[in-house]
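Morning F.,

Quick status update on the modeling queue. The single chain you submitted on Monday has been processed. Sequence for confirmation:
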Amino acid sequence: MDLNEDMEKARNALPKYFKILRGNEMPNFHHLRRISVDYEEHMSLDELWKIHTYGMQLLREEKFDEIEKKNLLTLKALIAKKLLRKCNLCEFKCHLNRYEVMGYCRVKNTKVASYFMHYGEEPELVPSFTIFFSGCNFRCVFCQNWDISQSSMGVRISPSKMGRIIEKAFERGAKNVNFVGGEPTPNLPYIIEVLTHVDSPIPVVWNSNMYMSEEAMNLLDGFVDIYLGDFKWGKDESARKYSKALNYWSVVTRNFRMASKHYRAEFLIRHLVIPGHIEETERIVAWIAENLGKDVRLNIMFQYRPEYKAYGYEEINRPLNYREMQKAKEIVREHGLRNAIVV
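Structure tokens below.
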């Protein structure tokens, strides 16, 4: 497949994103800033969630106002900060006070491991201004970014400064801001606050393992433009063994369903084919076709290589073979995913 053909598939799957790139539409977080809501810092979470529900209704009805100091984006930032006191941002729900201690995700205060223009993403994203956070709620034994995902490294950058950094990246030609890790979910309060300091019309890419809690998903609704979601496992047993993730299938499929109903959100789903687990590729592709539609942008990835602790698991301590790659291609064809990337 040549680049022109692949970009045509991307335009078919991500029409809103391309409207933003052309300047015909604004990124979602700009719309949030035009939804005026009234709240006070001292309010309880229950009270704030009720106001959030009202604000989201206004958003869906597109009852926009002028940008006010208190708006739906700043409300989301406040709710996210309050959730840190008994953290339940991801499905592990460790309920630790992350103002005082590190969570299960190995994150206390957000640390930025690196940020740069990324040219190795899907063609429609390049160049992507990618911000890597340290820490992750998964423990993938083959993690290629284990040095940042399994540690608390990096530097603290104030939200206002990061907002300026993003704006400068946009001026240099970044097509999007890509929040990744590790895993962005533990850093959601920081990310929302960062966006309150960004005026550039830069679309938001949420590059995630999709193991968020329902509360986190409700906060994500309305500011994510593209869910760059990782759909890794077709069996809970595999997720538990290799990523130490519980109830993976029910959590991730729930979140993809929720995301499909989010305000003007689009998908770019990645599936890393794992050696010896091609039957899980079959289940994942079938679920996507049935539940998200055959126009979804899906990237079937053959980049697996044994890293980190994979040497301790003989069955995955090898690269993919030719037969597995060909089978994955057949699966995509059989299920009719029209805009998939399979190389």
